[in-house]
Amino acid sequence: MIGIFGGTFDPVHNGHTHAALSVAAELGLHSIHMLLSARPGHRAPSHTSNEHRWKMLQLACADHDNLMADDRELQRPGTSYTFDTLAAMAAEKSSANEDKSHPVWILGQDSYATITSWYRWHEITNLCNLVVLDRPGQLTSEAHNLVDFFAQRQCKKIDHSKAGQMLRLALPMQEVSATFVRQQLSLGQSVSDHLAPQVSQYIKQHQLYITTESIV
Ligand code: ATP
Q1: Which of 7, 32, 158, 198 lies in disulfide reach of 20, CB 3.0 to 4.6 Å?
Q2: Per residue in 14-73, pLDDT tens?
Q3: pLDDT (tens digit per residue) in 174-191
């Protein structure tokens, strides 16, 4: 059983890796694809180039056997739609005749609250099971139709032989965001508590996020 944790990772921080590892431990997932959203359709373009974000993601995953940096959205031209990614993964799996379990798409509540603006969002939920994480300090209100949608699909335990289930997990998360990290770096403050050492080193070496334009 695999998990997928998508993000712009601008930059990847310990909140991301901690969240992915916590869900893997809680649900017994053998690996999590840390999927770089290269050209997201539902949010502003990232502050840093795809190349830098990809390199930082690889560095952050290097110390964790069960985290796999995944560049399939970088390799695919055009907008990085989650629906296309999940459909491609499902097609790969069926042609390889691999195990029949459905992937778990993991996302923070702030990101989940925007899902109705994602391309073919109803269908996304039929290609995977969704795990929504409470994120400290980032509670975003959810539209009524989304609350109802969730209520119809929520489960207490995921049955990996099926898709379309939703689970909220209230695991302890780290209170950090990439926006905060960029902000601190632009002010010349240390954020080493929130970044893998190799990622900190990379940011220093390439002098990333040193201007105020790189914050929001
Ligand atoms: P930004 O501040 O630029 O919006 P971010 O820190 O939210 O960035 P993203 O790459 O946008 O990071 O998020 C990728 C995914 O990680 C989203 O589903 C988001 O909700 C989740 N996430 C980000 N930070 C945390 C955290 N500290 N704990 C749990 N989930 C997180």
Answers
A1: 32
A2: 999 999 999 999 999 999 999 999 887 766 667 799 999 999 999 999 999 999 999 999
A3: 999 999 999 999 999 999
16 in a structural domain: yes
pTM of structure: 0.94
Ligand 1 cavity residues, CB under 6 Å: 7-10, 15-16, 19, 107-108, 110-111, 133, 135, 173-174, 176-179
Q: Could you tell me if residue 203 is inside a domain?
A: no
CA-based nearest residue to 21, from 8, 34, 40, 36:
34
Task: Provide the 10 A C-beta neighbour count for residue 77.
Answer: 8
Beta carbons within 10 angstroms of residue 210's beta carbon: 15
The domain tally of the chain equals 1
- We report the CATH number of the domain holding residue 54 as 3.40.50.620
User: Could you tell me if residue 133 is inside a domain?
Assistant: yes
Residue with tokens 């901690």: 18
Whole domain around residue 78: which residue ranges? Answer: 2-174
Residue 49 in domain: yes
Q: Which SS3 state, helix, strand or coil, does residue 196 take?
A: coil
Of 43, 70, 135, 174, the one to substitute when testing ligand 1's pocket (max ligand atoms within 8 A of C-beta) is: 135
